[in-house]
Automatic annotation (TrEMBL), chain A:
This is Lysine--tRNA ligase. The keyword Chaperone does not apply. NCBIfam families: lysS_bact (TIGR00499), PRK00484.1 (NF001756). Coiled coil: none annotated. It is found in: Cytoplasm. Residues 42-57 have a biased composition (Basic and acidic residues). It holds the Pfam family tRNA-synt_2. Residues 1-78 are annotated as: Disordered. One of its GO terms (biological process) is lysyl-tRNA aminoacylation. One of its GO terms (molecular function) is lysine-tRNA ligase activity. It comes from the Eukaryota. Residues 58-70 have a biased composition (Low complexity).
TrEMBL record, chain B:
It is an enzyme of class 6 (ligase). It catalyses: tRNA(Lys) + L-lysine + ATP = L-lysyl-tRNA(Lys) + AMP + diphosphate. HAMAP family: Lys_tRNA_synth_class2. InterPro entries: Aa-tRNA-synt_II, aa-tRNA-synth_II, aa-tRNA-synth_II/BPL/LPL, Lys-tRNA-ligase_II, Lys-tRNA-ligase_II_N, Lys-tRNA-synth_II_C, NA-bd_OB-fold, NA-bd_OB_tRNA. Its EC number is 6.1.1.6. Residues 42-61 are annotated as: Disordered. SUPFAM superfamilies: Class II aaRS and biotin synthetases, Nucleic acid-binding proteins. Gene3D superfamilies: Bira Bifunctional Protein, Domain 2, Nucleic acid-binding proteins. The keyword Aminoacyl-tRNA synthetase applies. This is Lysine--tRNA ligase. GO terms for cellular component: cytosol; mitochondrion. Belongs to the class-II aminoacyl-tRNA synthetase family.
Length: 620, 582
């Protein structure tokens, strides 16, 4: 435990250390200076001297002095020392028989509601007859004198100033000053008082009572030193809307490791971040409403399966002790959902986690969220229209227009614009490949001739394809190279070969192709959908073909699911099926280049594991 | 509808030899018959019968399958695709029943607006020479297809006779008519086989008795028993109602990880898996609590997650290894306000499903009218057993004696040893509660103020030492929800979690000692053989300060069981986990 606290504190303090105060940030500088001045004023000479001694001691040994009193209120302090002082402060409170963690604070308004209700006050106007109670986290503290403190109170994505004056506090001045010197940046407080505006026009609350509800025991990371950091950041984040660009490099808390591992700090300090997750929630709500309005039924299918089917991926394995049974985490809900359509639920969907035991990178997390839906009596043409309607409608509702801005080429380059105006471009996979690369891909794609032809093409264009060189894999590489690269605005790549699509129905007029589409946006696959293969005889044959690929070394080929095949024998109506990656869609809406930006708690490498241990295992 | 009833009552219990009736001509008033296989079935299944005089259903199935695959080929031979691509449906069965509910018997309605098109599964059929009645069932209900030879285009009547089987999925279009007998029908002009089924539909009675098969092949269960699908429709409605309720109160839905480095937030054996590229063990979450609380630290004041939880424990009518909960957390509130919230959610769901608050569960009438009873655990135990734990003092041994004496001779052995094994007064009280009070809590009851020893994440009670501000909701003797004023003091939290780990390790060590040398036993019966680790990241988060808050977890499967009058959790989970088939 000690270790982890210390690490946290260090990560945090590094931020502080790296950030010299920029004198060109006027307001911020004033408040910091004011704060420091106040600290100095209110502390006795003796105390200050001792503090300096302590600092010197810490710099030398970084050892924490046990004899220290918890009075120091200095953010230049060593984080470990700061933490211990806070612990001691709590201990004295408890020793005095006071509960430092009150059970309940009655809030009358959220901070946002407060702002809406009182922002029309005139400058200098006070409503002393009103009584309101607000609660939130203190993100900034300024002392104007020992009798007057200013705080920024943050909550629910908004902030309001607290102007607390000894004369209205019901405490005497010494008590007041002592109390407020114990209130730290990061503490969660409840204030009850009256609304008003300062002469300079800042909406504030003037407390008659002020209670600390929960204590921040660690030093909060400070505003970084970018010009005008604090105020600019808050203002900017207040107006950040989905579909516009973000700049995480300008965040108060920048360090990615800390941001992802301690998401709560990220959320506290970088105001935009909560908007990312609100946007994500809006996306999911929109999909749910869209499908509910079309009479789709939301269902839940198992996340632990006897066979991991419905996709080609390496599954997680686990074990049920009591049943002594090996179980796989699902890699797709597809087969179960189709079984429900066989059972008579004609329109079903599931929004949920999938799991793939694969590497972690900018677009992959071991668990991710998808929406899959299945619609009886519809085909892939219907689904393309539906997808256009859903996505363009969603972009319109959430961002206000059809176009979003996205840093596709890195934060240092200009963002691109992605246009969701329907209809989306459609390109026929094989035809387009022939055209773009000037090829004549053999019509019989299952032939050796086709395999050889494609292998030669890859060689010719220097397109790397790791073995095994199955036709499906070769084609995938070519499509990635020649077609996906052109798909910046939403584009359907349609009519994939049968060999690439074991669960899709053969095309009604184009031999050896299927009725399938993938939607690409910003060169990434977002949706995958097809007219479902519902001929059980053909389905079994496709599984058998997959098995051949598996035997030739492609461990991403699909496994046969007997229960599913039997279900098809009872009759699956003509059905269109569709899957969407919700994380990737959230990335587009929030100008995120890393999937970790849109996951509250992304999978991270273990922190505690020594590198040596990893190396040792890899040798085995 | 009549036809359906006939089918469901006779259905596949009809021997295949009935098929000889197929070509016999009957008048409408004469004997009706069911056809499970059409004419070409005859020769094939006769052949098959020889080899299976014991008439196993498997061989019948195989025979039927072979015949139907042949029909698929025949249809393709005629240029017809027995697995169609789509079908433009104008109405669902239920919509037609609604629109034409006042169409008088014996009348047709074939104006411009009466061109309709339906699609669904054929679940029954009767044929009489130049006339056939098919019952078509879709998601919404059933409707009869009225097929006259003269009216059908081309030679479709022949196709109907020769290639359509019960179980096939058909699309049909035509106009509307109500028969003399009052059956609303689509007067079919043309139809298409949309999906040829290869296997015969199961018999309702057989399906009902073969419980295991019902769960293993849920789709078969749903085809044979349409009311099964209703449970899942209601389940969707309940989940949607919960979402609507909490969103209207400003809660934000979030997703927290299933795969975790340490499984915390509850006491349960977790599933373990291994991540290849990270080279580490991961645990499947046993609760969403600790991550949702981090969100409160991060400044979200009202969050919830509806999601899957995993516990590596035995299966029963109340337990499935994966189940669904909602957990919700609200800053600046306490367990009192969470009780109101729980009442609000459950009653809204009941109204959404039943339209009323008095419901039947397995023969017991449950009254969900608010407010629900709120009583402390101490008082409930006192009321039921006469034992007042407030007066027992601090001597655990003496308390156990009083308890055993008080509960008397009727005590089962396992209960007796549970009492004797209680490591603290709080555990003892809880044991007595579970044994004597829990089964009696049929009407909704909030049980309040649990002992601190069994509530490691709950805040100490503001007035009563040794207790926490926690409640559980019981309905029908089952725990439905669990909630507390959340513990926000990081130091208190740390020592409680450390104590939990210590106790777990003690138990584990004790069991290892007991069963040493018996590896098998250890593996099989050991309840405590898994590791419990401290979630240090969570404790660090608390050190940054979590606002006073209350949180609640509610088991959605159990709520659905209650509101759909389902006896087993397997009835409300589409694909429950089952033992490996022998």
């Amino acid at each position: 435990m000690e270790g982890s606290v210390e690490e946290t504190a260090k990560a945090v303090s590094n931020l502080v250390v790296d950030s010299p105060v920029d004198p060109s940030a006027p307001e911020e500088t004033i408040s910091k200076n004011a704060l420091k001045k106040a600290m100095k004023n209110k502390q006795k000479e003796e105390e200050r001297r001792r503090k300096e001694e302590e600092k010197a001691k810490q710099a030398a040994a970084k050892a924490s002095s046990q004899s220290q009193k918890p009075a120091a209120d200095d953010e230049d302090m060593d984080p470990t020392q700061y933490f211990e002082n806070r612990l001691k402060y709590l201990a004295t409170k408890k020793a005095d028989g006071k509960n430092p963690y009150p059970h309940k604070f009655f809030v009358t308004l959220t901070i946002l509601e407060y702002i809406e209700k009182f922002e029309s006050l005139n400058n200098g106007e006070h409503l002393e007859s009103e009584t309101v109670s607000l609660a939130g986290r203190i993100m900034s503290k300024r002392a104007s004198s020992s009798k007057l403190f200013f705080y920024d109170l943050h909550g629910a994505g908004a902030k309001v100033q607290v102007m607390t004056d000894a004369s209205k506090s019901g405490m005497d001045e010494v008590e007041f000053s002592k109390f407020h010197s114990s209130v730290k940046r990061g503490d969660i407080v409840g204030v009850t008082g009256f609304p008003g505006k300062t002469k300079r026009g800042e909406l504030s609350i003037f407390p008659r009572s002020f209670v600390v509800l929960s204590h921040c025991l660690h030093m909060m990371p400070r505003q970084k030193a970018a010009p005008g950091a604090d105020t600019t950041n808050v203002k900017k984040t207040d107006i950040w809307v989905p579909g516009s660009t973000r700049n995480p490099e300008a965040y108060i808390l920048k360090d990615q490791e800390t941001r992802y591992r301690q998401r709560y700090l990220d959320l506290m300090l970088n105001m935009e971040v909560r908007q990312i997750f609100k946007t994500r929630s809006k996306i999911i709500s929109y999909i749910r409403k869209f499908l509910d309005d079309l009479d789709f039924l939301e269902v839940e299918t198992p996340m632990m399966n006897m066979i991991a089917g419905g996709a080609a991926a390496r599954p997680f394995v686990t074990h049920h002790n009591d049943l002594n049974m090996k179980l796989y985490m699902r890699i797709a809900p597809e087969l179960y959902l189709k079984e429900l359509v066989v059972g008579g639920l004609e329109r079903v969907y599931e929004i949920g986690k999938q799991f793939r035991n694969e590497g972690i990178d900018l677009t992959h997390n071991p668990e991710f969220t998808t929406c899959e839906f299945y619609m009886a009596f519809a085909d892939y043409n219907d689904l393309m229209e539906l997808t256009e309607k859903m996505l363009s409608g969603m972009v319109k509702e959430i961002t206000g227009g059809y176009k979003i801005k996205y840093h596709a080429n890195g934060l240092d380059k200009d963002p691109i614009e992605i246009d969701f105006t329907p209809p989306f471009r459609r390109i026929d996979m094989i035809e387009e490949l022939d055209k773009v690369a000037n090829l004549q891909i053999p019509k019989d794609l299952s032939s050796d001739e086709a395999n050889k032809y494609l292998a030669d093409v890859c060689l010719k264009f220097d397109i790397k394809c790791p073995p095994p060189l199955t036709t499906a894999r070769l084609l995938d590489k070519l499509v990635g190279h020649f077609l996906e690269e052109t798909c910046v605005n939403p584009t359907y790549i349609i009519n994939h070969p049968e060999i690439m699509s074991p669960l899709a129905k053969w095309h009604r007029s184009k031999p050896s192709l299927t009725e399938r589409f993938e939607l690409f946006i910003n060169k990434h696959e977002l949706c995958n959908a097809y007219t479902e293969l519902n001929d059980p005889v053909v389905q079994r044959q496709r599984f058998a073909d997959q098995l051949k690929d598996r035997q030739s070394g492609d461990d991403e080929a699909m496994a046969l699911d007997e229960t599913f095949c039997t279900a098809l024998e009872y009759g699956l109506p003509p059905t269109g099926g569709w899957g969407l990656g919700i994380d990737r869609l959230s990335m587009l809406f929030t100008d995120s280049q890393n999937i970790k930006e849109v996951l509250l708690f992304p999978a991270m490498k273990p922190q505690d594991e020594p590198c040596a241990k990893v190396a040792a295992t890899s040798e085995v | 509808m009549e036809a359906l009833k006939v089918w469901t009552s006779l259905s596949s219990s009809l021997p295949i030899s009935f098929r000889h009736l197929i070509h016999t001509r009957h008048r409408i008033t004469s004997l009706t018959f069911l056809r499970r296989c059409s004419s070409t079935t005859a020769s094939a299944s006769t052949r098959n019968r020889r080899s299976s005089s014991s008439s196993t259903s498997t061989s019948d199935r195989e025979a039927i399958r072979a015949i139907r695959i042949k029909k698929v080929e025949e249809l393709r031979g005629k240029g017809l695709e027995p697995y169609a691509y789509n079908w433009d449906r104008t109405h669902s069965a239920n919509q037609l029943q609604e629109i034409y509910k006042s169409l008088p018997n014996g009348e047709a309605s074939d104006g411009e607006n009466d061109r309709v098109s339906v699609a669904g599964r054929i679940v029954a059929r009767r044929a009489f020479g130049k006339l056939a009645f098919l019952t078509l069932r879709d998601d919404s209900g059933t409707i009869q297809l009225y097929c006259e030879k003269e009216r059908l285009v081309n030679d479709q009547f022949e196709q109907l006779k020769n290639h359509v089987d019960i179980g096939d999925i058909l699309g049909a279009s035509g106009s509307m008519k109500r028969t003399e007998k009052g059956e609303l029908s689509v007067l079919v002009n043309s139809f298409a086989i949309l999906t040829k089924s290869l296997l015969p539909l199961p018999d309702k009675y057989h399906g009902l008795t073969d419980v295991d098969k019902r769960y293993r092949q849920r789709y078969v269960d749903m085809i044979a028993n349409p009311e099964v699908a209703d449970v899942f429709r209601k389940r969707a409605k309940i989940v949607s109602e919960i979402r609507k309720t909490v969103e209207s109160l400003g809660f934000l839905e979030v997703e927290t990880p299933v795969l975790q480095g340490a499984a915390g937030g509850a006491e349960a054996r977790p599933f373990v898996t291994y991540h290849n590229s990270l080279r580490r063990d991961l645990y499947l979450r046993i609760a969403t609590e600790l991550h949702l609380k981090r969100m409160l630290v991060g400044g979200f004041e009202k969050v919830y997650e509806i999601g899957r939880i995993f516990r590596n424990e035995g299966i029963s009518t109340r337990h499935n290894p994966e189940f669904t909960t909602i957990e919700m957390y609200e800053a600046f509130s306490d367990y009192q306000s969470m009780m109101n919230m729980t009442e609000e959610i459950v009653t809204r769901c009941a109204l959404a499903v039943h339209g009323k608050l008095t419901i039947d569960y397995q023969g017991v009438e449950i009254n969900l009218e608010r407010p629900w009873r709120r009583e402390t655990m101490h008082n409930l135990v006192k009321e039921t057993t006469g034992i007042d734990f407030n007066e027992l003092g601090n001597d655990l041994k003496a308390a156990k004696e009083v308890t055993l004496r008080g509960l008397g001779v009727g005590l089962e052995n396992k209960d007796k040893s549970a009492i004797e094994a209680s490591p603290s007064l709080g555990n003892l009280l809880n044991e007595v509660f579970e044994i004597t009070v829990e089964p009696k809590l049929l009407q909704p009851t909030f049980v309040l103020d649990y002992p601190i020893e069994i509530s490691p994440l709950a805040k100490p009670h503001r007035r009563r030492a040794g207790l926490t501000e926690r409640f559980e909701l019981f309905i029908c003797g089952r725990e439905l929800a669990n909630a507390f004023s959340e513990l926000t003091d990081p130091l208190d939290q740390r020592s409680r979690l450390e104590e939990q780990v210590r106790q777990h390790n003690e138990k584990r060590a004790a069991h290892v000692a007991e069963t040493s040398g018996e590896e098998e036993n250890l593996k099989k019966n050991e309840d405590n053989s898994y590791e419990v680790t401290l979630d240090d990241d969570f404790l660090t988060a608390l050190e940054y300060g979590m606002p006073p808050a209350s949180g609640m977890g509610l088991g959605i499967d159990r709520l659905v069981m209650l509101l759909t009058n389902s006896a087993s959790i397997r009835d409300v989970i589409a694909f429950p986990v089952l033992k490996i088939q022998q």
